[in-house]
Amino acid sequence: MNTANLTRSETAARSAAVTVRDYRVDLDLSEATDQTRAGFATTTTVVFDATVEQTWLDFIGLAVDSVTVNGADVAVDYDGARLTVAGLAETNVVVVRATGAYSRSGEGLHRFLDPVDGLTYLYTQYEPADARRVFACFEQPDMKAPFTFAVTAPADWQVVSNRPYAAIQNNGLIQNVVFSPTLPISTYITAVAAGPYHRVESLWTRGDLTIPLGIYCRASLARYLDADTIFEVTKQGLDFFAEHFDYPYPWGKYDQVFVPEYNLGAMENPGLVTFTEAYVFRGAATAAQYEGRANTILHEMAHMWFGDLVTMVWWDDLWLKESFADYMGALVSSEATEWTDAWVAFANRRKAWAYLQDQLPTTHPIVADITDLEAAKLNFDGITYAKGASVLKQLVAYVGREEFFSGVRRYFRTHAFGNTTLDDLLTELSAESGRDLAGWARAWLQTTGVSTLTLDEGEIVQTDPRPHRLAVGLYDFDADGDLVIRDRVELDIVDERTPVALASAPLRLLNDGDLTYAKVRLDTASLATVGSSLDRVTDPLARGLIWSALWNATRDGELGAERYLSMARDFAPTETNMALLTAVLANASFTIGHYLPEPARDRWRGEWLESCWATLHSSAPGSGAQLAWARATAAAATVDGRRATDIRAMLLDGGPQGLALDPDLRWALWTASAATGAAKVAELDAELERDNTASGRTAHLRTLAARPEPEVKASAWDSALGDTTLTNDHLDAVIEGFRAGQRRDLTARYDDEYFAALRAVWDQRSIEIARRIVVGLFPAADSLDGVDRWLAANADAPGALRRLVVEQRDHLARDLRVRAVN
Questions:
Q1: How far apart are CA 703 and CA 721, in angstroms?
Q2: How many angstroms separate the CA atoms of 684 and 737, rounded?
């Protein structure tokens, strides 16, 4: 058995026998700038009560140097993941001195060397179970305790953790920073960041409560940090939650640090939220990017209550925090910030993620059955986040907004600093609303799948029947020729067929207002209206729902791929909502590469590139649309070389008027040139000299691997599978380069090697790195034979590995099925 993969049953037994009282963690990071040093000294002192004679602590590191139990040295009993401690009394003090490993995978304590200035940066990332890579602990969410962190680091570094400083000693070379004890929290949301970070400060005040605010990023990114914008959203969110939650922000300070080579969008460590530094925009950014960042900021802030203050007992109830945070991110964006159309992006983009996940054979209920940590790691998916948030939106409508927030406030007061399950939340919501929510929970939280709604001759027909509260919007042309809502009918449906009396209208839109979670189909007349007049629909949410309906029908093979592409070509150039435009451009590119048979694919590659190129040059100079179409042009040119000369001219002489060729856009264009054989290595090297940053080095790796040469693909393949020195971001870049251009003539030869390597990759690499390899290198084959042979021969493979392979098989099967229809 892999002892690192903790199971639900054994952790439940441990928490029943052990009660943690207190942690102190001492980390010596004073020599972290020496890149030859693989590890750091870590000392854990943990106080706990026990009703058993022995238990274990979790630790994954280079070595356990010594263990004392109640003052006595004991033999080290350590298998690389679990440290057994025996001879326990009723109350115990255990001290573990160990050596942790600096991470290059984003798991545990990640170390990054900035190529711009040679400075070293550290940060931690633990969810779901990587605190044990930094200190010995009871690694499960229901064993909460106060933590005191003490960090030794270079004297000129910023050192931050969940709590404010309690004491600092600095001798000019080294500093020792001791932080105030935390309130009781789970191990996975403890955090430390250390390095010469640039810091900006502010304050948020409400009544008698004043919270210091801090924003951090690498020194070399400081000129790009728009701290005022970030602080504005932060304060708007804190105002909203203070008013609606009626539970004062409990964590003492609110720091936000943007970190390199981050595996997630962000992480809700109380008092020290970490974000991908992709949110520090190095160049021009679209409104959709700013809106997405605001949503993430508010999502993580919601976690200060949902997840941090009140935490799930085990990962089955991950939705208790993630679904709520996803819902709150959109709600607060729409009601408290300038992003009043936040529900448009949610309906079109977030729910698309949920619909995709919910149609896989590995779909699961929102309240999932998570037996172990490997399963938990893969459950941070579209169902847990976006489907759960969609269902919560329905719940608010069902119980009433005020009753919902009253129940939430009861939930916080009753369970503050504790752990909960689904029943605990339903109890509080039922008490406030007067509704028995057991049936609702069974229908929406404990089932799988997505209903499809169709309007058919006076009836609404649904597959996979569930109770829905929805609206049908009747849209007609006004005097200006715009499609506007004329009438709206709200109704409840439960059965497979529900009669509905609707007046005729050019466009009848099911689920108008996005009240429920379901795919919708447009009836024949409405589809004809949309096909000629989608750009006349004035309401962005209605347009978002229409684009979503078109995309889902295309994915399901019910709408011809070329018809979808024709509508994208005709109407995307006039789409004013940047979130919708970004989604349509990505979906059109995906449709060409995945859903068209080869002759049509080749033709549409050229047509789509020409459409992107023309719209790029006709877009308003300096607009978000111009930037979005420039990025789409780069993506299209990566698989079609007919604009290679023009792409080169853009790189050498600049683009259309108003287009800022920032480093990221330049690298996207260079990737296109490299993938189609138009770029020389010397040119790519020269671009690296121009942008010799962390992002530049990552992009340089991608462009080098993108070149359409057999020896280049061979080198990239060997590097992805065998080079364990690659960081998480560099591994992604090599894989992206290997696949760039969709050149099956160059990559098909590796299909058998891929399946032969899977078990070894899973056994030998961390789950984060293994997941990137398994998903990223899955063959884009023309047959299911290879994957089916592997699945048949590897029934005993770890469940998480089989889940990834099964999901990739399903994506491929859909590609082949829809391609055949087209």
A1: 18
A2: 13
Q: Are 367 and 319 in contact (CB under 8 A)?
A: yes
Q: Is the peptide bond before 465 cis (omega within 30 degrees of 0)?
A: no
Q: What angle do CA 221, 227, 228 make, to 5 degrees?
A: 150
pLDDT digits (tens, 9 = 90+) for 100-135: 999 999 999 999 999 999 999 999 999 999 999 999
Q: Report how far residue 817's alpha carbon sits from residue 557's, in angstroms, rounded to the nearest whole number.
A: 8
Q: Which of 268, 300, 687, 736 is catalytic?
A: 300
* CA atoms of 338 and 590, how far apart (whole Å): 31
| Torsion sign (Cα): 273, 277, 281, 286 | negative
Tell me which residue has tokens 């060997």.
Answer: 718
pLDDT digits (tens, 9 = 90+) for 357-393: 999 999 999 999 999 999 999 888 999 999 999 999 9
Strands (DSSP E) contained in 37-157 are 39-50, 55-58, 63-69, 72-74, 77-78, 82-85, 91-101, 108-113, 120-125, 147-154
On the CB side of 478, CA atoms within 13 Å amount to 10
Distance in angstroms (rounded) separating the CA atoms of residues 171 and 155: 7
Gap between the Cα atoms of 774 and 757, Å rounded: 9
Nearest by Cα to 92 from 51, 133, 59: 51
Q: 187 near 139, Cβ under 8 Å?
A: yes
Instruction: Give Cα separations from 105 to 119, 275, 721, 770 (angstroms).
Output: 19, 16, 14, 10
291 among known catalytic residues: no
Residues near 59 by beta carbon (within 8 Å), at least 6 away in sequence: 78, 81, 82, 83, 96, 98, 132, 135, 136, 137
User: In angstroms, rounded to a whole number, what is the distance separating the alpha carbons of residues 65 and 79?
Assistant: 13
Helix, strand, coil proportions of the chain in percent (round to 5)? 45, 20, 30
Cα distances (Å, whole numbers) of residue 644 to 248, 471, 507, 608:
58, 48, 42, 15
